[in-house]
Amino acid sequence: MVPMFKTNAPQDLEELEERLSCPSAALVNEMAQIEGDILFLGAGGKLGPSITRMAKRATDEAGVSRRIIAVSRFSNQAAREQLNACGVETVAADLMSSEQLSALPDAANVIFMAGHKFGIANNPSSTWAMNSYLPGRVMERYSDSRIAAFSTGCVYGLSPLTQGGAIESDPLLPTDEYSMSCIGRERMVEHFSKVNQTPATILRLNYAVEMRYGVLVDIASAVFTDQPIDLTMGYCNVIWQGDANAMALRSLALADTPAFAINLVGPELLSVRRIADSFAQIFGKEVRFTGTESPECLLTNGNLCQQVFGYPQVPVQAVIEWTAEWIRSGGQTLNKPTGFQVRDGKY
């Protein structure tokens, strides 16, 4: 097995993809214990390709025979072909179609990743349909499966910095339609987990980062191009996407009835100002700031996550240095800002 953490930055897309999909020893051990196929719903998003490849690699290294199946619309045919080349089965389907959802393969394990965030201000009904209605349909369709459903730390709303981030037992306090629709997702998972005795985990992710996308890319790109950094959302959480992938797959073993919720997050509460200063020092730039740090931010506490899964294998300082080198060398990005500065849910 190739170690997940190397000190040098990924040099190209091939090496980046290799690292994002490299399974940890703990994951390989758990993949040997979990029975049945694994089905990924909404596998065409930012995490989907790397987590499905990781599941395939971990399964092979565990010496287990199982199907790894990725479901997406697959508007990008090249992405589908790349997954097929890795031994991942792919199914093109619209999950909002009752007929297509019903026709999907059965699987003992389901990773539910579909959701809608950006553009909610212009199309809120579509967001509610994807984030609240669809999860209920999936829970009914796969009532005999073990399910890990991605959610978001946005369900907690803003929390005081002095609190150290929201913990799993804190009340969910939505402040906008996006966070309300995500609570709708969680409530559907919880409801059908109880009614049908379907084991489930709810993964409140906040935020996964890699070289092409994420909070660190947003900040690094702004510093590199001499754009000001808004400090109003002055603190954040991040976690290397490869670590988030491994933890999400390992969470299948935690699935329970009623559904078990856990923050999928790194251990640190990070200062946006300090992150920007780090990039400015690496780039040899002067960084400009606007606004002042609010005492309340979108923050989650990772204590339970680290107790269950251990600390991330890739430390955040390494990701900062890798991101700086990637941006400075003109590495490809997805050109999709995260909107982590948004405080009103209007993404």
Automatic annotation (TrEMBL):
**Protein's organism:** Roseimaritima multifibrata
Q: Which InterPro entries match?
A: Epimerase_deHydtase, NAD(P)-bd_dom_sf
TM helices/strands, residue ranges: none
Origin: domain of life: Bacteria
Annotated signal sequence is none
Query: Any idea what this protein is called?
Result: NAD dependent epimerase/dehydratase family protein
All residue ranges annotated as the NAD-dependent epimerase/dehydratase domain in the record: 38-205
Q: Name one Pfam family in it.
A: Epimerase
Q: Which Gene3D superfamilies match?
A: NAD(P)-binding Rossmann-like Domain (3.40.50.720)
